[in-house]
UniProtKB/TrEMBL annotation:
Enzyme kind, highest EC tier: transferase
GO MF: 1,4-alpha-oligoglucan phosphorylase activity
Originating species: Enterococcus camelliae
SUPFAM superfamilies per UniProt: UDP-Glycosyltransferase/glycogen phosphorylase
Alphabetical list of Gene3D superfamilies matching this protein: Glycogen Phosphorylase B
Keyword DNA-binding among UniProt keywords: no
Classification via NCBIfam families: P_ylase
Protein name: Alpha-1,4 glucan phosphorylase
Length: 812
């Protein structure tokens, strides 16, 4: 692939597609042409990858996730194909800026946050390691809502990401399957005495897959992300006469989170779960059947991963197909199912552990409910006499008229993992302790990771260049080689280059903010970043208390030696999460108050960017000086933005929660600022029930001043929102210990400011963070899953090593 060949092909295709010259073409036409070229160039490898897995009878992984958050695909594909530099230069020759072209692509935002982004980082890493693994999910028409701020309030708009088509997907008509809902089921006696389930009057929905190639990094592997859309079955065209019936089918794959404040919305969500599970499992078994004959050793060919509880129905659907379609005995079917399935738990928050009413599941899919009942009955039978009755009551799948999805996932799989050391320990010792005692061998830890390619190579070219010049480019192939940077800790010239790269990224973000919001920010200030979903446990409120503290120090105490800071936020609140929306409103109003106050506006500013997304993260993270990871200890299972920020040289201010603990272990205590309650102190408070937030409020005038500002008129234009926050802290005793951790947090922030003022020290801290981020590479994480859980092997030898890095697997 060279520039000359590319230019010719590109111009030819532009003419072919649009009958237009490059001077007259719109950016979108250029984007479409480039994308078409890219896709057709990996198509052969896509087919070959697929065929190789079959020919070699390789065991394949299917990663089931109700969310995927890939972001934009173009640049990632160019990088992984080895085309990025050539294309950039060729387009420049034609007078086109590649970045402008890339901006044409809508974010593929089929996820909320960390969980969906993890699934996408894993897709990239699985392909890049040459592992046979595919994704399975839903092709939501509108994905997650688009966030706007109007008068400081969050407003949700539909995200029409498919409006101009999607270059990367291929509709696979021939792979469609039918999914049955509703109706009722009875068992009919057969001539041979066996019982056959008859599903009467089902509603049939046609599931049509859209496949997207997941291109590996310079290794010729292209795996598949399969997303399902719901359609009216061809044979039933006449049955679905009414608009209503047609709409019901469209609704199935319309939005990511149907409004779960009412029964109808919850039912729709459950139907979505069964829909993509059934379609995915059916297509796996159909493919397997076409290639192999014997279903008894299915587990030697298929691994299914259940990403959080949403796809837990995989267990029952797999059983259904083996029992009802393949006529396998219960014992054999169960034996195979457990070996095939594995499950990741993502949270210990009780409200996030899914439970479905028995009635609802029974009516959504009666046969599936029957099977779950039987799994539950056999579980109880097996455990009776082995463990106490109370333990059985706590671990069984169906209790209190609810189906416990996590229990189904654990009982029906051979592996349950947490996503950071602390989280996995909490699962074993507290949250899932009963299960741990029943199945100690099933529990394991797999600390999350990130695709270093996207979060460093793509997002931060300035830093990437410094790294290439300093330690060579082997880190691009193995992120562990970032560790070589440790040799340059005391190298003034390298530290200076890191500073220059950071400043360039801060400049880039400053320009971006100006363009998007019209706000001018001070690019020499500390860029203090908290980007993540808005949730009480993540404690954006604690961050706000610190900002208000600085504000009052300047305004009312006349402090002048405050290190200027720009506080950058990105966060969406769930549409029905009232409290989180109040925090957004108050943050926005404090931002406005500070902006309009000349006494503070040159020292402090808040930039709350709308519609946080992967693409936004890619501009913010490289520019961050400080990474805010301040959840209440024990509540954040892992976190991954903590890893992305560290990789980009931000210094972390953190509680000992999730993967923050492992970040501290990696960089050493002197290169991270830790504060606040530990997980065991939090649990002590729970046990003793002796936390009284009022004590902290009353005994600190500084804190009192800040908390009172929510209700005393200090902050203009807030109403009930301020009262709600005030009450959460005092009347409802501050569920997430914000006031308890306040003083320690303020001290930690002082430490940050002091460290930042010693730029030498700061740059060294930053360097150590970059150098030690390799251990959070998702490439290594997926290899651990592959070896310990999925038992799948690489087709390709280890991706090309530095010596043959000129290898470009894709030609035109
Ligand atoms: C990484 C990422 C997240 C996860 O952030 P946490 O701070 O780990 O919760 C959420 N959303 C997007 C867009 C991300 O890229």
């Amino acid at each position: 692939m060279n520039k000359k060949v590319f230019k010719k092909k590109f111009l030819d295709l532009l003419t072919e597609k649009f009958a237009i010259s490059v001077e007259d073409a719109s950016l979108f036409e250029i984007y479409t042409t480039l994308g078409t070229l890219v896709r057709s160039s990996y198509a052969k490898d896509w087919r070959r990858t697929w065929n190789t897995y079959d020919q070699c009878q390789q065991k394949q992984l299917y990663y089931f996730s109700i969310e995927f958050l890939p972001g934009r695909m173009m640049k990632s594909n160019l990088l992984n194909m080895g085309w990025l530099d050539t294309v950039q230069e060729a387009l420049a020759d034609l007078g086109i800026n590649l970045d402008d072209v890339l901006a044409q692509e809508p974010d593929m935002a089929l996820g909320n946050g960390g969980l969906g982004r993890l699934a996408s980082c894993f897709m990239d890493s699985i392909a890049s390691e040459g592992l046979p693994g595919n994704g399975n999910g839903i092709r939501y028409k509108y994905g997650l809502f688009k966030q706007k701020f109007i008068d400081g309030y969050q407003v949700e708009l539909p995200n029409e990401w498919l409006a101009r088509g999607n270059l990367w997907e291929v509709r696979r008509e021939s792979k469609a399957v039918d999914v049955c809902f509703n109706g009722h089921v009875y068992l009919k006696k057969q001539a041979d005495g066996s019982l056959e389930p008859i599903h009467e009057n089902p509603t049939i929905v046609r599931a049509v897959p859209y496949d997207t190639g997941m291109v590996g990094f310079r290794n010729g592997t292209v795996n598949t992300l399969r997303l399902w859309d719901a359609e009216i079955p061809l044979s039933e065209e006449s049955y679905y006469r009414s608009i209503e019936q047609r709409r019901a089918i469209q609704d199935l794959t319309s939005v990511l989170y149907p409004d779960d404040s009412n029964e109808e919305g919850r039912r729709l969500r459950l139907m979505q779960e069964y829909f993509f599970v059934s379609a995915g499992v059916q297509s796996i078994l159909r493919h397997f059947k076409a290639k192999q004959k014997d279903f008894h050793n299915l587990d030697e060919f298929v691994a299914i991963h259940i990403n959080d509880t949403h796809p837990a129905l995989c267990v029952a659907e797999f059983m259904r197909l083996l029992l009802d379609e393949e006529k396998m005995s219960w014992e054999r079917a169960w034996n195979v199912t457990v070996k095939v399935m594995s499950y990741t738990n993502h949270t210990i928050m009780a409200e996030a552990l899914e439970k479905w009413p028995v009635d609802m599941l029974q009516s959504v899919q009666p046969r599936i409910y029957q099977i779950i009942e039987e799994i539950d009955r056999r579980f109880i039978e097996e455990m009776t006499g082995v463990v106490d009755w109370e333990v059985i009551q706590r671990t069984r799948i169906i209790s209190d008229n609810l189906v416990h999805m996590a229990h189904l996932a654990i009982i029906g799989s051979h592996s349950t993992n947490g996503v950071a050391k602390l989280h996995s320990d909490l699962l074993k010792n507290v949250v899932l302790h009963d299960f741990y005692r029943l199945y100690p061998d099933r529990f394991n830890n797999k600390t999350n990771g990130i695709a270093e390619r996207r979060w460093l190579q793509l997002a931060n070219p300035a830093l990437s260049q410094v790294l290439d010049q300093t330690i060579g480019d082997s880190w691009r192939y193995d992120a562990n080689d970032l560790h070589l940077l440790m040799n340059f800790r005391e190298d003034e010239a390298v530290l200076k280059q890191l500073q220059v790269a950071k400043q360039a990224n801060k400049h880039r973000l400053t320009e971006f903010v100006l363009k998007e919001t019209g706000l001018k920010i001070n690019e020499t200030a500390i860029f203090d970043v908290q980007i993540k979903r808005l949730h009480a446990y993540k404690r954006q409120l604690l961050n706000l208390l610190h900002i208000l503290t600085l504000y009052f120090e300047i305004k009312e105490e006349g402090k002048t030696d405050i290190q200027p800071r720009v506080f950058i936020f990105g966060a969406k609140a769930a549409p029905s999460y009232h409290y989180a929306k109040s925090i957004i409103k108050v943050l926005n109003e404090v931002a406005t108050m500070i902006r309009h106050d000349p006494a503070v506006s040159d020292k402090l500013s808040i930039v709350f960017l709308e519609d946080y997304s992967v693409s936004l993260a890619e501009v913010i993270i490289p520019a961050a000086d400080v990474s805010e990871q301040i959840s209440l200890a024990s509540k954040e299972a892992s976190g991954t933005s903590n890893m992305k920020l560290m990789l980009n040289g931000a210094v972390t201010i953190a509680t000992l929660d999730g993967a923050n603990i492992e970040i501290r272990d990696a960089v050493g205590e002197e290169n991270i600022v830790i504060f606040g309650l530990t997980e065991s102190q939090v649990y002590d408070y729970y046990e003793q029930a002796n936390y009284h937030s009022y004590t902290y409020y009353e005994s600190s005038p500084k804190l009192k001043r800040v908390v009172d500002s929510f209700i005393d008129g200090t902050i203009p234009n807030i109403y009930q929102e301020g009262v709600e926050i005030f009450d959460s802290l005092l009347k409802y005793n501050d569920e997430f210990f914000v006031l308890r951790d306040y003083e320690a947090y303020i001290q930690a922030q002082r430490q940050i400011a002091a460290d930042y003022q010693q730029q030498d020290k700061w740059l060294r801290m930053s360097l150590v963070n970059i150098a030690n981020a390799g251990r959070f590479s998702a490439d290594d994480t997926v290899m651990k899953y592959a070896e310990d859980i999925w038992q799948i092997e690489k087709t390709n030898p280890k991706r090309r090593q530095a010596e043959d890095k000129k290898y470009v697997p894709y030609t035109l």
